[in-house]
Amino acid sequence: MKQTDMHSEHHPEPDNVSPLGPLAGLRVLDLSRILAGPTCTQLLGDMGADIIKIEKPGGGDDTRKWGPPYVQASDGEPTHESAYYLASNRNKRSVAIDISSKEGVELVRKLLIKCDVLLENFKLGGLRKYGLGYDDLKNEFPSLVYCSITGFGQTGPNAHRAGYDLLAQGFGGMMSLTGDPEGEPTKVGVGIADVMTGMYAATAILAALRHRDATGEGQHIDLALVDTQISWLVNEGTNYLLSGEEPLRRGNQHPNIVPYQVFEVLDGHVIIAIGNDRQFERFCNIIGAQHLASDKEFATNQARLANRDWLIDELSTILLEQNKQTLLADMELQGVPGGPINTVAEALATPQVAARDMSITMPYKPAASGVVDLIGNPIKFSKTPVTYRIPPPTCGEHTEEVLRELLNDSIQDQGK
After folding, report:
1. What's the CA gap between 56 and 99, in Å, rounded?
2. Stretch (H or E) spanning 54
3. pLDDT (tens digit, 9 = 90+) per residue, 34-87?
4. For 360-392, how does the pLDDT look when each residue is reduced to its tens digit (9 = 90+)?
5. What is the CATH number of the domain that holds 159?
6. Catalytic residue list
7. Which residue of 17, 126, 141, 250 has the fewest CB atoms within a 10 Å radius of its CB?
8. Number of domains the chain contains
């Protein structure tokens, strides 16, 4: 779907819709790279903020080279723009500045005068050696919201350690809960520690800006990948704190609800997600197993939890004779939660994804086709919809533009 078509075919725009976004007028100096920080700033950018992405001249964000796949140029050769980079860097303007140089640091400070937020994900203290740490800037820029993302945070015995998504998932307990019960601990299939830290960062930045607008005070936001993963233990973490019993790795099963998992059927696999006793009764009627619903050993969720293995064995045998599409159709008709297990290709091809604008197309000059397909933003505002204004930039693409616009300056004037 072309950018110009968005909100027209599926979502007619209501009256008085603003084309600027709810964060129009907000400017963020983005010194982050990889995934957590870029996820945060892409989200803010989609909502209208002006994101100035500072990149090392020549190479830029590490993820530009994290392929294949890469965007294909008109000559058939791959560009230096990977799918990984494209995933988290739209609605940003790239400015190439060498912050290891005195001139580069001075340029960053000049740009900060025009910015509301600085986001960085250097190792602990990594920006202090350049005079760009929070303590270096807070007096000169008292209203600045400064957000730091690290692996373990600014404090604690592990603060000095580097942070990577896989390490955070392992350290934070998530991998101990994920995967086959008889197999090895397993990470989530995407960098969920990075992505969720980016989302927490965006929320924290907006809260800090509300405080700044009320008081004039900026502040330092300290976010850690590991802290995010600890918070994501949610019910399993609280289960442990309440009972003292170590949670078990259950694969696709749920620790507190039965049956709530994947089952094999005649022609594939389905998800069965029974949330209450009434749903279980209707489900048993659908599959011709009324005797299970009436059995006191399975009639309540508490009983089903106590007799989990017995019930799952019974259901697994019965479901092997069920046709996937017929079963899911009957479940939907009867209001029993369940669904398919789509591949990525199947998920992106569904009418639901199209109806919700979750797959978008943007103009993109480096590509031979002149466009690039991206994942859309899930937020739906009724008055200030997200917009897709700038495709993921090439390294330094907007250096001259930003310097002239914000500083009445140019590359030549800076002696670069």
Report:
1. 8
2. strand 50-55
3. 999 999 999 999 999 999 999 999 989 999 999 999 999 888 788 889 999 999
4. 999 999 999 999 999 999 999 999 999 999 999
5. 3.40.50.10540
6. 194
7. 17
8. 2
